[in-house]
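To: structure desk
From: M.T.
Subject: fold request, one chain
Message: Could you run this one when you get a chance? Sequence is below, nothing fancy, just the single chain.
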Amino acid sequence: MAENNSKRNVSVRGPDAFSELKVTEPKPYAAGREGIAAAMKHSFKEMGIFRAMTTLLHMNQKEGFDCPSCAWPDPEKPSKIGEYCENGAKALADEATTAHIGAGFFGKHSVEELSLRTDYELNALGRITDPLVLREGSVHYSQISWKDAFALIADELHSLKSPDEAIFYTSGRSSNEAAFLYGLFVRAFGTNNLPDCSNMCHESSGVALSETLGIGKGSVKLEDLYGAEVIIVAGQNPGTNHPRMLSALEKCKENGGSVISINPLEESGLVNFKNPQTLKGLLGSGEQITDLHLAVNINQDISLIKLILKKLAALDKEEGNIFDHEFIDTYTAGADALLTDLNAYTEEELLKLSGVSMESVDTAVNLLAKNEKIIVCWAMGLTQHKNGVETIREYVNLLLLKGAIGKPFSGTCPVRGHSNVQGDRSVGIMHYVDKAFNERIKTHLGFTPPEEQGLDVVGSMRAMHEGKIKVFMALGGNFLMAASDTDYTAEAIQRCQLTVQVSTKLNRSHLVTGKTALILPTYGRSEKENNSGKNRFVTVENSMGRVRRSQGVLKAPSEKLKSEPELISNLADIYFEGKHAVDWKALGSDYGMIREMIDKVARGFENTELRAKGVGYYLPNNVRELDFSKLPGGKAQITINRLPEHNLLADEYMLMTIRSHDQFNTTIYGLDDRYRGVYNERRIIFMNPEDMEKDGLKKMEVVNLSSTYDSTIRTAYNFKVLPYKIPKGNLAAYFPETNVLVPYNHFADRSQTPISKSIKVRVLKGKIAG
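Reply: Done. Structure tokens follow.
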């Protein structure tokens, strides 16, 4: 339990009791008829049959709404049967549920009582229908008018000694219009404290790609995957996290391409894919996706790729034409230094660190040596390490030496986790200062933004914990459970005077709050945003840089909801009392005006009102044009990256946090992880059977996990051990239950992304109460 200044006893982590765990063998395939059944089960349960079927037919269609789940792009010609996956259907059902909770519910249930429920149980309560306030000294939320809610926020902001005493967090769910308006208000208010969810996930990708290629985004388009000769899927589990990606990998295989998966766990989706939209997928054997799986040790990708590069370099010296020397000479800098650095390592030491067999490495080398059209895809398995930036740069080295950049069917593919997290950054959600962006605001919108760098997520946690922050506002998300070091983050939040959550559903961040707290209910992606009887649309950007419109079709669950743009504009209008260069009030009712501003201020947006129709349009991407003019010497940068240094003690393991199949980020849809064979439980630890035998552990035995950093011991209580196919010395467990083990002050160099995929832990026998 944790206690704040208001004397509320709320459970920060929730209960740690066990459900009735059932374990089966992992599934040998993903999707298929079981995927359809699971999608329909969730949809019908939450929405009803008619509502579910009619709404699903509009998701990811040209004139429909964008999926509220991941950011995987839509094809040029979406399937009319249904352009969505199981997890997309779950996300829609979760958002469009007919279960609702309002002020009456919160009058009966205190925040203390609610905090004793699991995250799954909190989410299952349904949509929030009333604006709510939790006043200082109270343990119950009560209804508040929108006018009074905005006045409360405005008064608190006016009372601050400096704008930098406020933090404005953003989740990736918001539209371009909402995110732009939010960032604009925060800058007009006077701070760049704009942390966002990308700080915790793909910030390492943005830094690495900017340093090497000049843009913090991937370079491929969806169609490039279809014609690639080799696709490397590294540190990623598409079957659960980005299921529609499997269709693209299937097309690659049908066209003669090969797939290499690099990950400590062999995931079902990369073993075999049964496409539910094909006869082969429904009734047949499906498509074997992975040609070669490299079960690398946690955070040893650099060792593995250095070994592959070393072997490719030897082949190139012996046979020639392995590396693309014309491309290297024309477009890159640093190749000679990298090849010299590779000589400092022996194949034996790199192989031992990687944990992969030499036979498998040689197979990978042969595939890469004879092919030129290569794509590297990755997600959190690469980004959330202390050396996350360096790890991604090492994969970029491989692509650059092969000349597999800026050409059809080749390039980088960081797969974003949330549906518009990339768009948020494109329209200005960033804590750092972009001088050109600020100058355009000054020129076109008539005010001068602040020039001092703001706080990212890690900086925000520390500043709140030190009592430097009075107001914390979140546009979506579940900051408490998404951030690292759960107990530290809770203490930090509870030291604020006011916390504000713009939300659709209840989560633990609504229960662990500042002295006063607000919940401001908003629309979901699938819902109509009407203005004078006209259904408005918003725009989003997918993982590959295409901007398209999204227009909801469902009636909102309550007339008391406000859209995010309207909510932000009303708050800004009240804060500035109508006296500002920007006409805030008008922007809340006219999204076209917001898009006109975006076109003027954000880089690459142009005539968005019209061009976003249908499949939309791509934002500029210098890598696709082989333009590296903004980098030193006008060349793409080949880099030298150090091996990781873990220095594990004899009784320590390396733990990575993972999602279950019934989960999207911190939102828990259910308690099953069908592909890994785990049902009705989340408090489990995946462990190599030989490690279990060494430590004298039995299947289902209860243990605690502890991490020790800087003499601070953190403990996650009550987990059941499951034997699993994972390299020795490696462990895996679900987040957010294990986020408590991630130290707030250990993160990736330069990106400050938490080390959630490489935590040094001990496994302690015996159940201990938390």
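Reply (cont.): The CA atoms of residues 119 and 314 lie 52 Å apart. Let me know if you need anything else for the meeting.
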